[in-house]
Amino acid sequence: MSPRSGRALAAMALAALLVACGGPGATTGSATSTPSASAPPPARSAKPVSAVGRSIPVGLRIPAIGVDTPVMKLGLAADGSVQVPPIAAHDRAGWYEHSPTPGQTGPSVILGHVTVGAYGDGVFRRLGELHRGEKIVARLENGTAAVFAVTAVRTVSKAHFPSSEVYGNVNRPELRLITCGGKRTGDGYLDNVIVFAVLSSAAP
């Protein structure tokens, strides 16, 4: 991803953060927040892996927490905020189409709900249980499996969302998984859970 496109992505994120929650009474749509400074960036692995070509993600598997979900494409809502997956019984994750595809250079962003209203648990309900080194597999439209290793898992206040760390330029293929967490309020959650991961291998 070029420095210019990285800056544009980060700037867009400042106005519209990915905060999929799906709490009680939640509806299909989007959510916004205002970021500020945060803790130091996550640790980085020493072994680089070559980027793969652009291909849209169609599935996501996280063996350690029992996730095996289709992936839908997410864009921007009419108000300029980032879409979130619909509140539905068959919950699934969503890839933000203005981020790189998994395996391309840059931060690919996938988000999902922790709860889906009356339907119960969301696809990312156990995201915060992941540990450094655990595997995330993105299945791509071209048949490639892009395998990532977790480098960090963080829970942050939505009022202090680390936009530059999530959306900012990186010089290798990385992945960000985002959901809600922390204390539950009447219409959502106070925090976001963010998983940072780096590409470890890719194969058909």
TrEMBL record:
Residues in the signal sequence: 1-26
InterPro entries: Sortase (IPR005754), Sortase_dom-sf (IPR023365), Sortase_F (IPR042001)
Region Disordered, annotated ranges: 26-50
RNA-binding in keyword set: no
Keywords: Hydrolase, Signal
Keyword Zinc-finger in annotation: no
SUPFAM superfamilies (UniProt xref): Sortase (SSF63817)
Domain of life: Bacteria
Low complexity bias spans: 26-37
Name assigned to this protein: Class F sortase
Natural source organism: Streptomyces longisporus
